[in-house]
Amino acid sequence: MKNMETLKNENMNLSDKIYIFDTTLRDGEQTPGVALTVDEKIQIATKLNNLGVDKIEVGFPASSNAEVESAREIKSMDLDSTLVGLARSLTSDIDAVLDADLEYIHTFIGTSPLHRDYKLQMSKEKIVETAVSAVEYAKDHGLTVEFSAEDATRTERDFLFDVFNNVVDAGVDFLDIPDTVGVLTPVVTRELITDIKNNFKTPISVHFHNDFGLATANTLTAIECGANQAHVTVNGLGERTGNCSLEELVITLKVAYGIDLGLDTTRLYSLSNLVGRFTGVKMPVNKPIVGANAFAHESGIHVHGILNNSSTYEPISPEMVGHSRRIVLGKHTGANALKSKLKDYHIDLDDKQFCKVFDEIKSLGDSGKCVTDDDLIAIAITELSSARETPIVLKGLGLSSGGGVSPTATVKLEIDGVEKEAASTGVGPVDAALNAIRLLIQDTMDIELEEYNLEAITGGTDALAEVFVISSDPDGNKSTGRSTNQDIVMASILAVLDSINKLLLIKRTKIN
After folding, report:
1. Distance (Å, rounded) from C-alpha 401 to C-alpha 424?
2. How many DSSP H helices and E strands does the chain contain?
3. 3-state secondary structure of 490
4. Which runs of E-coded beta strand occur in 234-356?
5. Helical H runs in 237-334?
6. Which three-class secondary structure state does DSSP give residue 95?
7. What is the per-residue pLDDT across 280-301, written as a single tens digit (0 to 9) for each?
8. Domains within the chain, CATH numbers bracketed
9. Distances (CA, A) of 252 to 233, 238, 243, 296
10. Per residue in 358-374, pLDDT tens?
């Protein structure tokens, strides 16, 4: 938050050390439709390690042999991040974590009435006994143990504390509070975490889901109240609507709270893109921090401010997260934005040319089109290469086809101030229109179309068509013509007329 005080204040019970526990490879992979290969997991783990996260939950070893093998391969890379394996409170699950050669286990059991009665069908006493046995077994085998009371936020407070007291006595290293179905609000989070911190000395971890869109807000509140560790995923992936977003949490802590976790935040954007490609889950353009529009500006007022001082409309610089700023062209574009774009591409226009390009951009924006940089370049180059004088001007165009009849074009031109109209057929609408133009200019000059090139500048059905032509006359003079338009026929006609006007000016110059 540039030139502003941070939110951190003396009333917060901030931990001396805040750990980032990334569970993209475990909970993130539980996103519906997502399945990562071993190689993909290795690449993501490497990037998370290079980013500097403290812990990486590499998977759920008991779920498959492939999970064990991928955990082993990641472990063999000797990363700096601590690697974690998930396990139910079962001896067999814990053995699978040991078999994966991991040294940190995240074990869990459901504690809420819903989980006790409908999923586990266990009494409170049996829940406590199972949880304690799992912690003791894992500790006896040399593992660092984090215990999660699944659905903790819908568990009776006295029973939750009873479970925690027993696993603490069994030697647990971290107590995790999962908001399994994302029902917390910041106010309730503050009360819950404060109560737990007041009753337990064991480090507290939080694992909050995003069902109500509050995972990051709740995690920040928990940290304010003394939580020592936050579970996160890249891009906020995870079951249903996902988990607390890694990039949102890290940047908010760094910028708004002034808490530098020692992570290389310039790697966040590339990490987000990699995970997006591997999972097939594309981020919304308005996703905070890493979305395509996170640092994009179109409004003329905003762009003017950004060009003078980026802090006017950006809370952080895009470089902080490895992103880049985009000036988007469209219906809200101002002159300053367009001038900045043209300068970036070293395109110099005089005032008249600039006004024409500006009007074209506005017109395209009003039609609902988002004008890309490639569109702008094509429009500007078209204006630069257009004839300075236009003795021949298009005044009207009509097209008809179908019913087994060859396409017909009716073209109206103004030639040296006199309007003329002609109709002609052709093998297609473009050919028909060009044949009509030849009829109209036959008394003025004769031309031969030597080259015709059509290209769609960008993808999509609303792409601008760019037409480039070379025409010649009987005297051997040649000229180029160029036009951009969303209508291919119109782009073709305007390009040919541009070429004809240049030939006509050449001819008249030689005569004079």
Report:
1. 12
2. 16, 16
3. helix
4. 296-297, 326-327
5. 246-255, 268-279, 300-308
6. helix
7. 998 999 999 999 888 876 555 5
8. 23-279 (3.20.20.70), 296-385 (no CATH), 392-511 (3.30.160.270)
9. 15, 20, 16, 19
10. 888 888 777 666 677 76
